[in-house]
Amino acid sequence: MSINPKVTSATQADVAVYKSFQKQFPDFSRWFNHIASFTAEFETLPAGEAPAGAKEVAAEEDDDDEVDLFGSDDDEVDAEAEKVKQQRLAEYAAKKAAKGPKPAAKSLVTLDVKPWDDETDLEELLANVKAIEKDGLIWGAHTFIPVGFGIKKLQINIVVEDDKVSLEELQQEIEEDEDHVQSTDIAAMSKL
After folding, report:
1. 57 in a structural domain
2. Which of 177, 174, 176 lies closest to 185, judged by CA?
3. Which helix (DSSP H) or strand (DSSP E) does residue 111 occupy?
4. How many CB atoms lie within 10 A of CB 114?
5. At residue 25, does pLDDT exceed 70?
6. Which uninterrupted H or E stretch holds 160?
7. What is the pLDDT of residues 151-186, one digit of tens each?
8. Tell me: the pLDDT tens digits for 74-89?
9. Number of domains in the chain
10. Confidence grade of residue 57 (pLDDT, cut at 50, 70, 90)
11. Which of the ends of the chain has fewer CB neighbours closer than 10 A, N or C?
């Protein structure tokens, strides 16, 4: 498609090219329309310095012979670019190290501890359960919930550090109190 300056009427092809250009280069289109609004004042506009990169662009256009449009097989390494890259990597590593370790991942867990029958001493069961101490384990609130036929189960909240406490091992340790505990279940669990 060629543009004929003598043609004064636009066609749908012109509209398609215009929309495509605006979509592909929105910043340039905005700048071009802004500068075009000053056409009547072009001769009276004050002189200004070229934008910061315009001189480099002009210099690059003069060095067309050095431009490799199809990529190069040369494994030349720009020493300055490599130096900047290494410096930025070092800054990133230092920034990351300055933050320190991340806080430990924790979970809030609600455990159901089921007794054998209605004659099980629930206060003793609670004392035996809370007697278990581990690094990364915090016992929380508890309640006795009726199950049926006069039997109540112990429901207790705990906070555990995921890396330090295995819930499976904790349940096994609670179930070792065979005189009081029939079984344990995890009723609810959420990450903190």
Report:
1. no
2. 174
3. strand 106-115
4. 19
5. yes
6. strand 151-161
7. 999 999 999 999 899 999 999 999 999 999 999 999
8. 556 678 888 999 999 9
9. 1
10. low
11. N
**DSSP secondary structure letter of residue 182:** E
What is the residue range of 119's domain?
A: 106-191
Cα separation, 120 vs 151, in Å, equals 9
What's the pLDDT tens digit per position in 110-127? 999 999 999 999 999 999
Q: What per-residue string of b and e applies to 159-190 under the rule 16 or more CB within 10 Å gives b? A: ebbeeebebeebbeebeebeebbeebeeeeee
Q: Which residues contact 169 (CB under 8 A, 6 or more apart)?
A: none
Q: What is the pTM of this model?
A: 0.48
Task: Answer whether 113's CB lies under 8 Å from 153's CB.
Answer: yes
In a domain, 168, yes or no: yes
pLDDT at residue 14 above 60?
yes
Beta carbons of 174 and 113 less than 8 angstroms apart: yes
Q: In the structure encoding, which two tokens stand for residue 103, read together?
A: 């806080």
Cα gap 182→102, rounded to integer Å: 38
Domain assignment present for residue 134? The answer is: yes
Round to the nearest angstrom and report the end-to-end CA distance of the chain.
63
The CATH number given to whatever domain includes residue 112 is: 3.30.70.60
